[in-house]
Amino acid sequence: MSQPVTLYTTSWCPYCAAAKSLLREKGVAFTEIDVEKTPGSRAAMVQRAGGRTSVPQIFIGETHIGGCDDLHALDRAGKLDPLLLAA
After folding, report:
1. Does the pTM exceed 0.90?
2. Going by C-beta distance under 8 Å and a sequence separation of 6 or more, which residues neighbour residue 84?
3. Disulfide engineering: 16 pairs with which of 5, 8, 9, 28, CB 3.0-4.6 Å?
4. What is the CATH number of the domain that holds 10?
């Protein structure tokens, strides 16, 4: 059982694309919420992310990971896979 992964993104953001690419390489399914196309989603993201307004904002389960750099740093540190698999 893996944790649900949610990404708040925009269609034109290269960091969003890089975060999705890493998750796809790992075979991780994720829910993508485009903050430009989904009404109210940017406000929800900012509230959920503790005031952060940049995209992507990434959540694994209810844990706020942060952005693309944070996701890659977790992966390099060997901490991403255990977080994804935590049930």
Report:
1. yes
2. 2, 3, 5, 26, 28, 60
3. 9
4. 3.40.30.10
Within 13 Å of residue 58, how many CA atoms lie on the same side as its CB? 28
The residue written with tokens 């993508």 in the block is: 32
pLDDT tens for 1-59 read: 578 999 999 999 999 999 999 999 999 999 999 999 999 999 999 999 999 999 999 99
Q: Count how many domains the chain has.
A: 1
Integer-rounded Cα radius of gyration of the chain: 12
The Cα–Cα gap between 29 and 49 comes to 21
Domain that holds residue 56: 5-85
One DSSP character per residue, 53-66 reads -SS-EEEETTEEEE
> Cα separation of 3 and 50, whole Å?
21
* Number of residues assigned to the chain: 87
